[in-house]
Structure formats: structure tokens, C-alpha cells
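User: Reviewer 2 asked us to show a designed sequence for the structure in our supplementary figure. I'm pasting the C-alpha cells here. Could you produce the per-position amino acids so we can include them in the response letter?
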């Protein structure tokens, strides 16, 4: 994966933590808590059964005292520690309640807190000073939160590894274990596991691995992000350079129908009201998003008016779930409900064991006396009919975009109620489909745009705006020209479709269904999904899912199910995310025997988990391989040509690994290999796979500005000289996957960057900054696709054609390889439509 996207995420997190104190100043709940009071007391709700009889299930929750004892590293003199209860509904960085701890000596601190029984507390530690200093893991990464399930009076022992300004120094250990269903005894995937502030998700076999824990006593918790299982926890003692085993059995919870009825104030009526909450079903991404929020507005359920005009929604939620939620006209931070005195409201109760009706009312959408701000905007007439217009606010850094309210005819509105009373100034901008930084208003383009300034005040304000043009969106009314040739018929086994780009953001998920329908309508019969895991450690390699960077299991199941439902065949092509460039990561790795042993163990978990996912969802193919694996293959080489030091038994390791994949997944197995480098020395175990996916990103022509005829001639020579020879030698069906950005020179040997060096074509992927030294050339991409389709058409031995790098959330006519919204997509649709493969 590309470094540029990784750096964007890193800078996002740094921005959150460097500006956290500004956020806390805005949130009046972000203050010192009285030790006799819980974090957020439940808001009263009147609850009835469907029959109308009252039931006493949703009540103010009983409280139990928990004693927290923490061991901290040596700190500056005369500094205390606070325990910070976090609010994941509003945003982890935005609404903490801090409890000052009592020192026992200069390294041990304690506090007793009354906490709601049945709740799951999310907390962390910070050093007390004007700007709180948050704790970090032994790797120097900010601690998102720790977990504690309140079952009654209890005690918790924790260890702080380090602080942002005082990193950890010392040996570490790890915890390794499994999580299973207590009834079925089946392994549980995508369970959140936390100890010492370090988090991970279980793999498909229920296993987990927490690396880099300071030696000592830790509190270990396993938590279902959708509430489907009761939270489990236990103590775990970690020794230096050792692995502590831990086994968990989680109890499944039945689904209960909860009907939410809501009365809203007259401040805003006939606009979408959403429910923001602490579980996946209520929009929680379990990721650090822009501006310190954690929920995605478009993933929060929208209430609908009933026959009497009242708002209502019925959700199936697991019994026993410690539910925290609020109603909102935006997300958990913007335009969420407030108490009459202006505080953020959090409703909290335990989901009962029987169907229940909850009658709630919103006191106010306002947080103070500051007047509302109305944003009234007209979008360009060429705005795609299926697109939404979003607004993004910047009170201290850009927060997650919010969908605006459509008035029809490209006219959109949004009224900002809160929490503007806490802001002296903010700025805003518009974008499409919540993709600010990519699908922007041209006047405020880019991730670092300043936006338009606003000063909240005592008098209502209205901003009447006009988006004159969208960035990367100037569609030409001229039809796309397609080469006129005799079409050679293909049977339905021919693989024709697109591969979604591997970069991911949780805001993309609501857009997938529309994209899949477009693909089906274009004549595509396949969709290749590229889920990712992230390398979080290199000295001891750990490859794991990181929420926000990598799609969750539930998201993948949903997307693959949607594709199947509309008649698309599906393939999974799992790929890793690197913290730096791929070559730098490999070069910096120790690559000794023990390192390779750990690497193969982690990679096995990665591919077998996706084999299990493919089997569970009925995926039609699983794709393994790719350029990034070159150092781990037989005769492995680094990017500079040096030997990678791969173990001598590497071929048998790979053959065994493919055998394990076959045991978990019975469908078509495909190996991805690059042209031309990978094809020169294909791995000897290629005989074990069914098909070969040739990743074609090489120069098509040596000319600077080749014509379509030049491209066809040069491509024909490459296909017949290299690809056909490979096909004959290996006797495996081949599928071509091409990946060419719409940039002048992309068909040639080099696209020069600002420094004169050739650019990696992935540098043009969204989301990311433009490279001004390059020139947008949509017609060049059209010519490349025309040339490929003409040549593929005349070669019956080619069994598929895939367009790689599809950017799902918004159509853009940018420089990326994505065909979404580009003239080259018309070329693909013409050819695929004529083949009639999905009918």
C-alpha cells in the first residue's frame, strides 16, 4: 500500500491529540468529575411493551464502586494522574470526564468511582497539567481507551507504559489467546480485545495477539462491537519477552426488538433525525476519525415519521447490551441533542430481554443562547443525480462531513444549532458524498483547505452559497469514442469487472450498493474487493485489522452480500497496509530466522481469515499474491536486488500454506503476479492455483504521446511475446488486471514527478493531494482501455479483464486509475455490455 495514505492517517491522529485541549474547552462536560457521581447518568425514558403496558426494564441504572489502581512510569515531580472516562458517542477527544487520582507513592495512584452496573466503561489515564498529557503504549502510540465491564463492586489494576512526552523504555511481553462462542464452541471473529491500552481484533479462528505490553498485571477485556456477546474480562500477568496465554468463552445474546418513539422540539422539523450510539448498528466506527469524532453520520439509523407524524424506528438489538446513545441532526458532536442547561446528553441503559417500546423526547438541539447558522447552497447542474452534498466544519481541525438536507433541484440546506456557543469562530466547506478532501467544492479543494469563515453570534445568520464547480468533475457532453471491431463471443466464465482500490474509509460503506448496481448495469459480471489488514509492528511483525484503516468483517459480509444479491460474482483480494513504503518496510525488517517464523505465522492468519470469509459469504474466487510478497517468495529479493534472507524451506512453507487455504475455502484460487517482473520468475508453487491474475501496469508504448493504433500494436507484441508464452508454459487461465492513471504519459515508461524521478502510479490514488507537475489526460486513459479491449477481444486464450483501482465513494474525473465517473468507464461498459455476461 502507498505511503501517502498512511501519512495522511498519521497526521490526522497527530492533529487530534495535539488539539485535544481545544476540543475539551468547547465541551463543558470535559471537566473534573465529582468522585461521588458517575460519568453520565441515564436519561429518563418511558418504556412500554408493544401492548402498551408499562415495564420496569429501562430505569436509572444501579451503581457499584470500582477501585482503579494504576502503576505509572517515573514522572516529573508534583504531577498527578487523572482517570478519564471517555464518551465514544460524542467523540473520544471531545467530552471526557476526568477524575483526579490519589497518589499512594510517586508511581502508584488510586481512585474509587461509582459506575453504572452492566455498563462497559471506556477510559484512559492522563497526567494533570494545563494541557493534559495522555498515556501511550510501549510503541509510543496514543492509547485509544481501556475497557472495563461493570458487574458490581470491583477492582482494576493497570500499568501505564508511557506518556506522549515520556516514551516507554524497557522490555515487553505479549498476550496470545482465543475467543469462542460459549454455546456453539465456534471461534468468534472481529471481537475487540484490549489490555494495557493496546487493542486488536480476533481473526476468523478466534485468535488474538497483543504485542508490546509492559511486564506486570494487566486487565484483559474482550468486547463485541455490536453487542452480540456479553463482555468478558480477566486479569493477565505479562512477563518480559514472554507470551501469556488467555482463553475466553463469550455468551451470545438474543436479539430484541426495540422501538424508539421520539418527540422533537419545534426548532427543526421535517429534517432527518438519526440515532448516534456506542455500537456498530448506531454508527460507531471504532476508529479515530477526523476531528476526534468516532461516528459516521451516514451509518447512523434514520428515524421515520409514523402514521401520526411522530418519529419512530424499530431496531433489533442484543439483550444485555450496555447501550449509550443520543438523537442528532448531524452526528454525535454536531447538532446532537442537549440537556436544558446546554450539556451533551447521553442516554444510557441496558437492553432488556423482551421487546420494548422506548418513548423519548429531545429537550433541545441547542447548547446555549448562540443563534443558529443556516447554510443554503445551490450545487452545479452537472452534480450527479445520485450524489449527496455534504458540509464539513472546522472548529479546531476538520471534523467528519455531515450530509445536508436536499430541497430538490440541486438545492441543499443545513441549519447548525450546536455546539456553536462554545466556539468563537469556525470555518466550513462543501463536498460530495462526505468525501471532503477529494470530491470538493473547487473553491475549497484539498485536505488542507481553509474553508469559509463563520463567527457565531446572538443573531441568526444565513449563508447563501453557490458551488460554481466541483473539483475533478467537469464531464464532457461529447460521447466517448469506442473502437469499431467485430466482437468475439465469450461464455459467462469470462471474468469482466473492476477491482476496488485497497485504501478504505468507513464513510465509503453506505455508497457501495449504488456502485455495485452501476457495475452490474455496465455489463460487469465480477467485483473484486480488496480488504486490508495493517502491519502495526515490523521488528516483530504483526499484521492485524485496524478499524478505520481496514474494513471490519461485518462490513465485508454486507458488501459481498449486496454484490451477490444483484447478480455479481465476487472475488476477495486481501492486501496489506504498510506504515511506510513497501520497500522501506522490508529493508528495515530484521529478517532473521525468528522474524521469518513470526512473519509466516501472521501471514497465515491473514490469508486463512480471508479464506474463511470467502467461504462464509460464498465468494466465487480468492486472490493471493502481488508484488509486495516478492521478498517472501523462493529466491526472494528486496527492491535493490539484494537477497531477502528468506528461509531455505520457503517453498514447502508456501505449499503448506496454500494447502491450509484450500482446506478452508473450496472455490477458485487465483495467484496475482506482476507483468513483466513477476512473470520472469514465477513461484514454483503456481501449479497449486487455478488461475493467474496478471497485474499489468507496465509501459504499453515507448512513445511519449502514442496514438491508439500505436498502443494496439505495442500491446499486441507484449501479449503475444510475453503473456502468451507464460500462458503456454504454466497451462493456467490468465486474467488481465490493468491500472493506469488518467495522466499524460501513463502509457509510457515514466511519469516524472517534481524531482524528475518516476512516480509510483499509486501516488495518484484517492484520497490524496494533487501532483501539479503532472497533467490530467482523460483521453489517454480512454485510448489505453480501447487498445486493451481490442487486443483482448482477439485473443480467446485470455479469460478475463479487470479494471483495477476503482474509487467507490464518489465519481471523479481526477488523475487516479479509477474509472468511476470517467470516459474510460464508457469504454468498459460498451465492451462488457456487448458481451452480455451478466444476463
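Assistant: Here is a per-position design you can include in the supplement:
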Amino acid at each position: 500500500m502507498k505511503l501517502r495514505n498512511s501519512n495522511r492517517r498519521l497526521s490526522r491522529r497527530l492533529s487530534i491529540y495535539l488539539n485535544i485541549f481545544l476540543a475539551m474547552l468547547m465541551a463543558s462536560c470535559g471537566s473534573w468529575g465529582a468522585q461521588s457521581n458517575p460519568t453520565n447518568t441515564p436519561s429518563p425514558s418511558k418504556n412500554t411493551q408493544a401492548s402498551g403496558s408499562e415495564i420496569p426494564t429501562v430505569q436509572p441504572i444501579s451503581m457499584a464502586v470500582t477501585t482503579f489502581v494504576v502503576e505509572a512510569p517515573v514522572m516529573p515531580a508534583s504531577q498527578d494522574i487523572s482517570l478519564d472516562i471517555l464518551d465514544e458517542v460524542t467523540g473520544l477527544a471531545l467530552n471526557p470526564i476526568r477524575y483526579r487520582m490519589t497518589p499512594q507513592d510517586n508511581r502508584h495512584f488510586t481512585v474509587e468511582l461509582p459506575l453504572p452496573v452492566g455498563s462497559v466503561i471506556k477510559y484512559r489515564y492522563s497526567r494533570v497539567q494545563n494541557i493534559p498529557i495522555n498515556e501511550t503504549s510501549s510503541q509510543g502510540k496514543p492509547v485509544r481507551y481501556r475497557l472495563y465491564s461493570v458487574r458490581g463492586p470491583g477492582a482494576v489494576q493497570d500499568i501505564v507504559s508511557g506518556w506522549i512526552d515520556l516514551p516507554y523504555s524497557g522490555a515487553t511481553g505479549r498476550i496470545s489467546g482465543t475467543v469462542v462462542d460459549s454455546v456453539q464452541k465456534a471461534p468468534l471473529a472481529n471481537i475487540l480485545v484490549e489490555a494495557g491500552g493496546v487493542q486488536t481484533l480476533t481473526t476468523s479462528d478466534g485468535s488474538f495477539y497483543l504485542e508490546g505490553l509492559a511486564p506486570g498485571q494487566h486487565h484483559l477485556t474482550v468486547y463485541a462491537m455490536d453487542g452480540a456477546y456479553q463482555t468478558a474480562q480477566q486479569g493477565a500477568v505479562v512477563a518480559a519477552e514472554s507470551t501469556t496465554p488467555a482463553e475466553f468463552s463469550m455468551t451470545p445474546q438474543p436479539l430484541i426488538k426495540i422501538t424508539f418513539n421520539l418527540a422533537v422540539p419545534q426548532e427543526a422539523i421535517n429534517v432527518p433525525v438519526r440515532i448516534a450510539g456506542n455500537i456498530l448498528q448506531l454508527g460507531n466506527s471504532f476508529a479515530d476519525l477526523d476531528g476526534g469524532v468516532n461516528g459516521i453520520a451516514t451509518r447512523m439509523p434514520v428515524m421515520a415519521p409514523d402514521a401520526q407524524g411522530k418519529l419512530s424506528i424499530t431496531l433489533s438489538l442484543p439483550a444485555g447490551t450496555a447501550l449509550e446513545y443520543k438523537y442528532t441532526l448531524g452526528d454525535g458532536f454536531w447538532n446532537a441533542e442537549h440537556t436544558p442547561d446546554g450539556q451533551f446528553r447521553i442516554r444510557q441503559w441496558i437492553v432488556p430481554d423482551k421487546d420494548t417500546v422506548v418513548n423519548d423526547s429531545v429537550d433541545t438541539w441547542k447548547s446555549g443562547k448562540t443563534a443558529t447558522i443556516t447554510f443554503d447552497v445551490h450545487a452545479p447542474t452537472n452534480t450527479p443525480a445520485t450524489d449527496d452534498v455534504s458540509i464539513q466544519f472546522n472548529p479546531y481541525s476538520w471534523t467528519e462531513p455531515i450530509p445536508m438536507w436536499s430541497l430538490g433541484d440541486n438545492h441543499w440546506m443545513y441549519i447548525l444549532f450546536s455546539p456553536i456557543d462554545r466556539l468563537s469562530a469556525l470555518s466550513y466547506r462543501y463536498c460530495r458524498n462526505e468525501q471532503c478532501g477529494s470530491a470538493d467544492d473547487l473553491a475549497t479543494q484539498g485536505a488542507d483547505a481553509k474553508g469559509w469563515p463563520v463567527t457565531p453570534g446572538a443573531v441568526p445568520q444565513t449563508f447563501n452559497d453557490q458551488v460554481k464547480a466541483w473539483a475533478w468533475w467537469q464531464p464532457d457532453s461529447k460521447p466517448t469514442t469506442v473502437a469499431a471491431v467485430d466482437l468475439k463471443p465469450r461464455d459467462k466464465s469470462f471474468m469482466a469487472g473492476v477491482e476496488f482500490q485497497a485504501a478504505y474509509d468507513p464513510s465509503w460503506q453506505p455508497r457501495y450498493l449504488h456502485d455495485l448496481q452501476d457495475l452490474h448495469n455496465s455489463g460487469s459480471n465480477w467485483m473484486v474487493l480488496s480488504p486490508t489488514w495493517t502491519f502495526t509492528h515490523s521488528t516483530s511483525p504483526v499484521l492485524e485489522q485496524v478499524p478505520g484503516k481496514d474494513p471490519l468483517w461485518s462490513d465485508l459480509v454486507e458488501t459481498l452480500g449486496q454484490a451477490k444479491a444483484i447478480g455479481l460474482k465476487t472475488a476477495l483480494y486481501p492486501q496489506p497496509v504498510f506504515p511506510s513504503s513497501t520497500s522501506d518496510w522490508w529493508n528495515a525488517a530484521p529478517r532473521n530466522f525468528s522474524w521469518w517464523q513470526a512473519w509466516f505465522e501472521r501471514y497465515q492468519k491473514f490469508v486463512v481469515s480471508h479464506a474463511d470469509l470467502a467461504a462464509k459469504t460464498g465468494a466465487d474466487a480468492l486472490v493471493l499474491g502481488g508484488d509486495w510478497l516478492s521478498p517472501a517468495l523462493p529466491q526472494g529479493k528486496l527492491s535493490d536486488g539484494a537477497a531477502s534472507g528468506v528461509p531455505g524451506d520457503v517453498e514447502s512453507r508456501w505449499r503448506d500454506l496454500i494447502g491450509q487455504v484450500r482446506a478452508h475455502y473450496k472455490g477458485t484460487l487465483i495467484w496475482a503476479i506482476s507483468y513483466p517482473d513477476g512473470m520472469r520468475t514465477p513461484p514454483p508453487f503456481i501449479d497449486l492455483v487455478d488461475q493467474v491474475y496478471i497485474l499489468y501496469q507496465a509501459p504499453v508504448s515507448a512513445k511519449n504521446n502514442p496514438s491508439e493504433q500505436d498502443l494496439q500494436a505495442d500491446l499486441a507484441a507484449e501479449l503475444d511475446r510475453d503473456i502468451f508464452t507464460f500462458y503456454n508454459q504454466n497451462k493456467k487461465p490468465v486474467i488481465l488486471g490493468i491500472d493506469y492513471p488518467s495522466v499524460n504519459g501513463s502509457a509510457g515508461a515514466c511519469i516524472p514527478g517534481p524531482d524528475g524521478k518516476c512516480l509510483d502510479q499509486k501516488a495518484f490514488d484517492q484520497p490524496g493531494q494533487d501532483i501539479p507537475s503532472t497533467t490530467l489526460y482523460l483521453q489517454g486513459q480512454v485510448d489505453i482501455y480501447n487498445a486493451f479491449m481490442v487486443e483482448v477481444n482477439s485473443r480467446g486464450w485470455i479469460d478475463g479483464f479487470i479494471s483495477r483501482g476503482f474509487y467507490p465513494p464518489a465519481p471523479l474525473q481526477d488523475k487516479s486509475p479509477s474509472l468511476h465517473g470517467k470516459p474510460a468507464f464508457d469504454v468498459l461498459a460498451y465492451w462488457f455490455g456487448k458481451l452480455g455476461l451478466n444476463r
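For the response letter, you might also mention the following. The chain has a mean pLDDT of 90. Residues 296 and 727 are 46 Å apart (CA to CA).
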